[in-house]
Amino acid sequence: MKAIRRFTVRPVLPEPLRPLHDLARNLRWSWHTETRELFRAADPEGWRPADADPVRLLGSLSAGRLAELARDEEYLGRLAEASAGLQEYLDGPRWYQEQRAAGAALPSAIAYFSPEFGVTAALPQYSGGLGILAGDHLKAASDLGVPLVGVGLLYRHGYFRQTLSREGWQQEHYPVLDPHELPLDLVREADGSPARVVLALPGGRSLHACVWLARVGRVPLLLLDSDVEENAPGERDVTDRLYGGGSDHRLLQEMLLGIGGVRAVRTWCRLTGAPEPEVFHTNEGHAGFLGLERIRELAAAGLDFDAALEVVRAGTVFTTHTPVPAGIDRFDRHLVSRHFGEDGELPGVAVEKILRLGTETYPGGEPELFNMAVMGLRLAQRANGVSTLHGAVSREMFSGLWPGFDPAEVPITSVTNGVHAPTWVAPEVFRLGAGQVGEDRAHQVLAGAPVTDADATRTGTPRRWEAVGSIGDQEIWDLRRDLRGQLVTEVRRRLYASWRRRGAGTAELGWIDGVLDPDVLTIGFARRVPSYKRLTLMLRDRDRLRELLLHPTRPIQIVVAGKAHPADDGGKRLVQELVRFADDPRVRHRIVFLPDYGMGMAQKLYPGCDVWLNNPLRPLEACGTSGMKAALNGCLNLSVRDGWWDEWFDPDFGWEIPTADGSAVDEDRRDELESNALYALIEDRVAPRFYDRGPDGLPGRWIEMVRSTLVNLGPKVLAGRMVREYVERLYTPAAQSRRTLEPEAARALAQWKAKVRTAWPGVLVDHVESVADTAAGGSAELGGTLTLRVRIALGGLDPNDVEVQAVAGRVDSGDAIADAQTFPLKPVGGHDLEDRRLYEGTLTLDRTGPYGYTVRVLPAHTLLASGAELGLVALPTGAAAEEAGVLMR
Questions:
Q1: Kind and range of the H or E element at 744?
Q2: Which residues contact residue 550 at a Cβ distance below 8 angstroms, ignoring those fewer than 6 apart?
Q3: Closest residue by Cα to residue 590 from 553, 552, 546, 554
Q4: How far apart are CA 347 and CA 340, in angstroms?
Q5: Do 418 and 722 contact (CB within 8 A), yes or no?
Q6: What ranges in 110-162 are assigned the alpha helix state H?
Q7: Which of 219, 249, 216 shows the shortest CA–CA distance to 118?
Q8: pLDDT score at 9
């Protein structure tokens, strides 16, 4: 019989054990080893690291066991120490507070919005890299003391759980999550009633949501939940599952995340007295509507739309994670318009102005679609990609929003992702490092303490990281074998469970006891399964792969995991293709596919692999943080030069897979070339280095690469480094810009922009002339100078409204300027009868070969973050272009 009602009975802890409640409900336990060990000791049999959940564990303890623990003096001593440690962690000053004390003008608070957060397997609100990155961002912010508040949605079904059919076809399951059984607390008003946010929907309907709180160390994470009694069935399902439903469903999710999220933050600050955020960080376009809600707030306070837009832009940071337009949410503009205006949300904001923010106005854009990333960029004064290469790809992809500028000048910077080391470093790796530098310093290292002159070598590596370099070869090799052995045990357990779910009987599965070998070179590949990540590239030549797997003296073994999107049948076919190969009795002891990839599995998989494989179509991997997590455990990378590996590749850290992305080849030929390169690398370089043993029986060169990865790559891939960059390069400048834009300043800036846009068609480069350095005989020689005189029509603008520049550098065969440098030109004298202004400046000829220049005019204002911000530029045309286009050879 089924229960007609379900509810959760919470345990009543004996008084001496009460601190366990706070320890369980703060997710710091998920990355704090001592706290996890405390819960393990409470029930060694019931605690499973892969899916550990202290809240559920405490609910399962018998009254007798609780009474026993309450009398255990040794356990109570550990509990008191852990409780005091948590309190010190929550209240004590950290890096951010030290920076403030030193006078840094840091933001009072930052709101960080993301559609998914991967904090722990016990709170399954993530699908892949975007969510794991968001969770690591919160954890690193907590470790550094950054006053962040996270905002997301609570999906009652989370993402899906993955199993396989007997034929290897992916099957999805959506278990219902009860928030009362998760490490969450309902945010309540002062009278004890649940706090609510409400959105207006067309037809007089409303969308209600309650707010759940997850404590991520020092960082509150607010999760909005539409499964409340006030909603009709359709509205209750808005937060049913992550990335589910059609366009209308997704639009409502993103409205709730953005608009409802801002209202949830305001409620949180009102109830707790927390400072209001000065900066809003939009993690991908899904949360872009938060900017519209903030415009509505400012409009209600008396600002017009344009002035409110300037205030919002000044305090907003937008991060794009996708390198392809197909990865961006786009909605029919008529669907968007139905949800706004007088019959929907934001009635004080004109619908046409909302639509204009998301319109694809660039060549090739579709004006009938509303682009969430385009809106995100237009609502943020500062934007970034997530690796150096991805920043370049993003500037190219969105360059149409800044016509007239080269992609290199598009105002999208990059902050390379990082990973939260305390979450992803295996305890055994941590203990080995702590043995060299001490436990407290090891914790500081993994938190991403900044490198200072006093703490860095000539190479910039912190000395406390260098201390890891003194660990002996035998210790490193023993560690690696131990981790590999743990992975073998975990793989066999999961593989057995998978085959049982596929319908196999116990008598069929004796072979699983021989799957994998703790002494064989182990390669890992685990990620989502869109086609560009090329899950099956390794299967391109199956005979050659079998030879590698079954080599008599240098065999390899491969562990693969990954989920295809439920609607992606192409991705599911790739999974099935890999599974069928791995089911072959000839190789199934050497290659396995593990279903239901998630955080619990990953925390065993990364440390246990010797090599981490990544072979996407370059440059379609924005960052690829899985290789970072593997590297922190001494795993070497074997990867295409994409994402973070493009900027930090070093032969001491692993191998690069050559790519054919610059060749005029079709996709099939490209896969053939790159798979052959992959096989050759494993066969000729990777496997021999692993199996080449010295007189002591150790692979000395391999161990040296492991050591170099830990010492030199480790400090770069930390989420602490990433969050510090966000604070210093994006959050703090955004807060300073926001503080400057008080209402009058915002109105003045909006009026100035309107004046410039109106006048810009009349801004012209009318005449250009150049005079070479006479000391060089009038010819262009290295070290010489060139004086430019330019006449500009300002179209009624004041000279202070513009900046006139010369742009110079080497030129290619098509006269395009590469590696351009800009030189300001200064006004000279007055203006002529036609209101032309004269400008002059000098170019220094600092390079040889084909060289060229041009002249341009940009808007200039002290409150602009860059000269390209307005997307306006005046270049020479006609005769002036011919004059400016002089080439010197």
A1: helix 743-759
A2: 586, 587, 590
A3: 546
A4: 7
A5: yes
A6: 129-144
A7: 216
A8: 61
Strand order in the sheet with 836-844: 763-772, 785-794, 836-844, 817-831, 802-811, 851-859, 887-888
CB atoms closer than 10 angstroms to residue 69: 20
- Whether the CB-CB separation of 130 and 611 falls below 8 Å is answered with no
Length in residues, the chain? 889
State the Cα–Cα distance between residues 53 and 30, nearest whole angstrom. 9
Tell me whether strands 521-526 and 369-371 are parallel, antiparallel or unpaired.
unpaired
The torsion defined by the Cα of 609, 527, 383 and 269, in degrees rounded to 10, comes to: -90
Q: Looking up tokens 């006048």, which residue turns up?
A: 759
Strand runs labelled E in 229-278: none
If DSSP codes are grouped into helix, strand and coil, which group holds residue 424?
A: helix
Q: What is the largest CA-CA distance in the chain?
A: 100
Alpha carbons 735 and 732: distance in angstroms, whole number = 5
Helix axes 667-681, 542-549, angle to 10 degrees: 20
Q: What is the CB neighbour count within 10 angstroms for residue 84? A: 11
Distance set, CA 437 to CA 132, 431, 432, 712 (Å):
29, 10, 9, 16
Phi, psi of 107 (to 5 degrees): -60, 150
Contact between 538 and 678 under an 8 Å Cβ cutoff? The reply is yes
Task: Give the number of other CB atoms < 10 A from CB of residue 672.
Answer: 16
Query: Shortest CA distance to 216 belongs to which of 424, 29, 469, 384?
Result: 29
What is the distance between the alpha carbons of residues 336 and 718, in angstroms, rounded to a whole number? 39
- Run means of pLDDT, 10 residues per run, the chain, 889 residues: 63 91 96 94 84 88 94 96 97 96 96 97 92 97 98 94 96 93 96 97 95 98 97 96 91 98 98 98 96 96 96 98 87 95 88 96 92 97 98 96 93 98 94 80 74 46 68 95 97 97 94 97 94 95 98 98 94 97 97 96 96 96 96 97 97 96 80 96 98 97 96 95 98 97 96 97 91 58 83 92 92 80 86 78 81 92 94 82 45
Q: What are the counts of helices (DSSP H) followed by strands (DSSP E) for the chain? A: 33, 27
Residue 888, pLDDT score: 34
For residue 125, list its beta bridge partners: 117
d(CA 836, CA 881) in angstroms, rounded, equals 17
Q: What is residue 341's predicted lDDT score, i.e. its pLDDT?
A: 84
Kindly state the helix (H) or strand (E) to which residue 785 belongs, with its residue range: strand 785-794
* pLDDT value of position 458: 40
The answer to whether the beta carbons of residues 681 and 669 sit under 8 Å apart is no
Question: Edge-to-edge strand order for the sheet containing 636-640?
Answer: 591-594, 556-561, 521-526, 611-614, 636-640, 654-657
Distance CA 275, CA 174 (A): 38
**Spatial separation of the C-alpha atoms in residues 81 and 70, rounded to whole Å:** 15
E strand or H helix that includes residue 161: strand 161-164
Do strands 591-594 and 556-561 pair parallel, antiparallel, or not at all (unpaired)?
parallel
Give the CA count within 13 Å in the CB-facing half-sphere of 709: 29
